[in-house]
Design a protein that fits this description.
The protein is an alpha/beta fold and 428 residues long. It is built from 14 helices and 16 strands. The chain has three domains: 87 residues, Conserved hypothetical protein from pyrococcus furiosus pfu- 392566-001, ParB domain (Alpha-Beta Complex), CATH 3.90.1530; 144 residues, 3-Layer(aba) Sandwich (Rossmann fold); 74 residues, no CATH class. Strands 8-9-10-12-11-13 form a six-stranded mixed β-sheet, with helices on both faces. The protein has a three-stranded mixed β-sheet with strand order 3-2-5.
């Protein structure tokens, strides 16, 4: 593992990576992680992986896995960079096999946008005992395969929690680098900031927008930057403003709030507000500012947290209706519930005569808006329902015990305790 800032890209790299490719590489990093390391020489010069390095920087990654090649000459290093890019272009696709694999992944719910492929028109492809005919080739009802059935039935799953949770795992993850702050949320932050520090909102500036140049902008003496910057560049932004005496109140990722740059240039405000941005990204957010007295480096702001969360609820209510949450009677058992029991180490068995399979309840059918129970469920006998209730209680107890057992308590060393005792003393 190497610090990402220690990696030196090749300045004359001939392989180009446009914004669309970098966006897809970022999506791949979020979905799969760093499954292929960078290739560097002993001095940290990058031999292979320029695109994924750019994507990692944009994602705010601070350490990257590397394979180190030793004893390579300067000539061989430059030749390898060209060869690594060129040799990949010499391979070819089997288009039918490629398209079949893509369709198979789609049928499993995978987000195939991460693959970076543009498949051509499919011809007739054998899939087991079924045949998929390309559109316009007169496929019969019998010739329709499960791909078509899945597409046709997909709309019926809207509002089904289990289905949506499954599909959500394959969706491209989003970050605040790609989105705008809803106006109602920004207004809540700006109003609190103006009231807390006695500022005029007319002097608030927002330099972070597509194509914006926060470094080239002219800032007036009374200007205050109140905005949501790209989190991947937050340290750079804080040092820029801090070094020039420009006042700021910036959104920051809550889990990385106590960064070196934040503590050096300002005060960390641990608001821990879950903000849903306009692109759907949900990010636990806090704030960093240099509006506090210089000796205050960290604080909470309950009123700010409440104001932001109220604004988020208002935004979500206006943007879309909430999907319904299903709660089933004690006599109904779904596969995800049993799966959770298995993860917790609970033994549970059902006899054949203790259940019947159902796809929906009569009440759901009568309602007309419900889409049924995704994957089906089991309607239990009274005896089995009682056993289910006991299993649910045991599962809750095991989950609570497991959560407690996962907590690892760390102790201070003698050196650290000596530092603690010295802190807060008036003398240097």
């Amino acid at each position: 593992m190497r610090d990402i800032d220690s990696i030196i890209p090749y300045a004359r790299n001939a392989r180009m990576h446009d914004g669309e490719q970098i966006a897809k590489l970022r999506g791949s990093l979020r979905q799969f992680g760093f499954v292929k390391p960078l290739t560097i020489d002993e001095d940290g010069n990058l031999l292979a992986g320029h695109g994924i390095l750019t994507a990692a920087r944009a994602e705010g990654v601070t350490e990257v896995p590397c394979v180190v090649v030793s004893g390579i000459s300067e000539v061989d290093r430059q030749a390898y960079i060209i060869a690594d890019n060129a040799l990949a272009d010499l391979s070819a696709w089997d288009p039918k096999m490629r398209d079949l694999e893509v369709k198979r992944l789609e049928s499993l719910g995978a987000n195939t946008k991460l693959l970076g492929l543009k498949t051509g028109k499919l011809g007739t492809v054998d899939v087991g005992a079924y045949t998929r005919a390309a559109p316009g080739e007169g496929a019969s009802a019998e010739g329709e395969d499960w791909f078509e059935n899945r597409e046709r039935d997909r709309g019926r799953q809207e509002g089904n929690d289990e289905y949506n949770e499954f599909v959500e795992k394959f969706e491209l993850k989003k970050t605040t680098d790609d989105c705008y702050t809803p106006d109602v949320v920004y207004d809540a932050v700006a109003e609190w900031t103006a009231a807390e520090y006695g500022l005029n909102r007319s002097r608030f500036v927002r330099p972070f927008y597509p194509g914006g140049d926060y470094q080239g902008r002219e800032y007036g003496h009374e200007d205050v930057v109140v905005d949501n910057p790209p989190f991947s560049k937050l340290a750079e932004i804080l040092r820029f403003y801090g070094g020039r005496g420009i006042r700021y109140f910036l959104f920051a990722p809550a889990l990385m709030l106590f960064s070196r740059a934040a503590l050096e240039t300002g005060c960390c405000i641990a608001a821990y507000a879950d903000i849903v941005y306009e692109n759907g990204a949900s990010v636990c957010t806090s704030f960093v500012t240099n509006l506090e007295p210089e000796n205050v480096k960290a604080r909470t702001a309950p009123a700010l947290t409440e104001a932001v969360e109220t604004a988020v609820r208002e935004y979500l209510r206006d943007k879309r209706a909430s999907l319904p949450k299903y709660e089933f009677p004690a006599e109904v058992l779904t596969a995800p519930v049993m799966g959770r029991w298995s993860q917790l180490g609970l033994e549970f068995k059902l006899r054949k005569l203790d259940f019947v399979r159902i796809s929906e309840l009569d009440a759901m059918k009568a309602d007309g808006r419900a889409s049924g129970i995704f994957g089906g469920a089991l309607l239990l006998s009274e005896k089995a329902a009682a056993e289910k209730a006991a299993a649910e209680k045991a599962a809750a107890e095991k989950a609570a015990a497991a959560e407690k057992a996962d907590v690892r308590r760390w102790e201070l060393s003698a050196r650290e305790r000596a530092i603690v005792q010295a802190l807060g003393e008036d003398n240097e």
